Amino acid sequence: MSLIRNVVNSDCFNPAPTLPYQLRIIDFQSAMQDVYDFFHDVNVNLHEKGLRRFEDMLRPAMCSGLISDMLTSSLAKHSRTLCENQYFNGHPDLIVQGIYPNDSVNAGEKGVEIKSTVKVGGAVDTHGARTQWLCVFVYKVDTETQPAWSRSPMKFTEVYLGHVEEDDFRSNARGRLGTRTATLDRDGIAKLREKWIYLDRDPS
């Protein structure tokens, strides 16, 4: 049931990952658990009021955005060297503290961009192709189990963190009213998947 608090499975982490900026596995584990705890606490409150599950209230894009923002904030809290980029919509989301004025930069080189998606394998859209440290959290949301309050809580299944180059991306077709995006191409996503941080293959 969604009222059960999800717990990050420590056995699913890469035992020997390559991590930049003095990041540690415990930073990822703590950030993921922070998100689990938030969803659990909110859902307990919603259930007591007879309202819908939080996951069911959120549109998919809003859910991904919220999770990305929460992970960014929590990783900044647990990290030894990284902080949140104070520039609105600046890149990357996490920057090395103290090297940019007021920890704010429109387009910086030292840091990590954070994305979340429900796409298995981590092929997430970005606003542009650029050389960067890219971290992708893959999660799943149960939208089918009935009744709704018997659904499993949101769960992280994959985490990747790799250094990708501008040439690793392909540009996506843009509709008349759409915003141009870029996605890692076949070789680029393969490069990212080699640098896995967390893989949970449990189907539950």
Short description:
With about 200 residues, the protein is of the alpha+beta class. The chain contains 4 helices and 8 strands.
Task: Walk me through the structure.
- This protein has 204 residues and is α+β, with helices and mostly antiparallel strands.
- It is 27% helix and 21% strand.
- It is built from four helices and eight strands.
- A six-stranded mixed β-sheet has the order 1-2-3-4-5-8, with helices on both faces. The protein has a two-stranded antiparallel sheet with strand order 6-7.
- The longest helix has 24 residues, at 25-48.
- It is globular, with a radius of gyration of 17 Å.
- The mean pLDDT is 93.
Structural class: alpha+beta
Mean pLDDT: 93
Order of strands, main sheet, comes to 1-2-3-4-5-8
| Percent of sequence in beta strands | 15-25%
The largest sheet, given as strand count, sense and whether it forms a barrel, is: 6 strands, mixed
List key phrases describing it.
six-stranded mixed sheet; two-stranded antiparallel ribbon; 8 strands; 4 helices; alpha+beta; 204 residues
